[in-house]
Fold this protein.
Amino acid sequence: MKEIISGTAIAGFISLCANGFKVFTSEWSVWFPFGAGVSQLPLGFSVALLGAGYLIGIASGLAMLVGTLIAWLGFVPYYTNVLPFPDGSSLADFAQSVWASKVRFIGAGTIGVAAIWTLLTLLKPIVDGIRVSVKSMKMSQAERDTHRMDTDMKPVTIAWVFLVLLIGLVLCFYSFVSAVPISPALLWTLVACGVVIAVLVGFFVAAACGYMAGLVGTSSSPISGIGILGIIISSLVVYAIASMNHLFATQSGVQFATALALFMTSVIVCIAAISNDNLQDLKTGQLVGATPWKQQIALLIGSVAGAVVIAPVLNMLYEAYGFTGAMPCRLWLLVLVFIYRQPCRPRLLLVLLLTILSIVIWHDGLVSVV
């Protein structure tokens, strides 16, 4: 407890000096010419990253350092030397655009390869873990009472939970795809593909991320690489189906295919994130002597409660403030501005304000008005 309190106090003081008082900076970089191009030496200090580095170890920290050197002392100088310099741009902006559009994807590919390697290396322990779980589910009631800390939910209960999740996935993908005017055959094809990808990819994702979270912790979970693999798999499937059905012929079709691939990926990432939290909780329960099947029921209730609460809250935030690039349409505000500019404002304002208020409450709900 002493170490936790002292570490929190030191981290808070450093953050206050850096972000509040601006006594010293947490980021610093030096730009220097590299032939006809340019590069930089990016430096930074973060107490949070310092703690994360302590958890992941020196090997992962050295891997990040090597990646930084490869990017800014290798590829960025090379591309800034061979690519044409854009008019009206500074060298720093040019280097940053090269890094964002070309060099950064090398790191994404590295993370993807690391995720595949992690899945392959974890295949044997995952299979062994599934085998042990299946064996424990076949216990008799007497054995379950005797081995309380080794009992999971019953197979029938797991089957019912899986069926409910399957129906939820179908409804979720159907509500997303049905908003677009496409043929019923294409609609159900996309729904089926989304469900299959979520089930198959989600199973391996949950196994790999959950295993690492339970063994080491969420800081060592390969969720970033899983997200990259998820978007690659989803994009390839959606691209194949969209190409065969000529969805890319229109701009709206391109936007729909992009949104569907991102939606599939979001389902996979949600599965990975939930498996991280749940397996870490189960590990903690194992350390303190909890009963696994009771924990699993509590975690199911927590997942459902989170899904019920988070979506309306996010929608409320969107309706109130909007998101960058996707602001909500406030038609009633535009009408009020129009009325305010008219000569006979008071009477017309009162009548139309009441009319608009009743329409908005009926159509979008009171939250949209507020």
Observations:
- Residues 331-369 form one domain.
- The two ends are 45 Å apart (CA to CA).
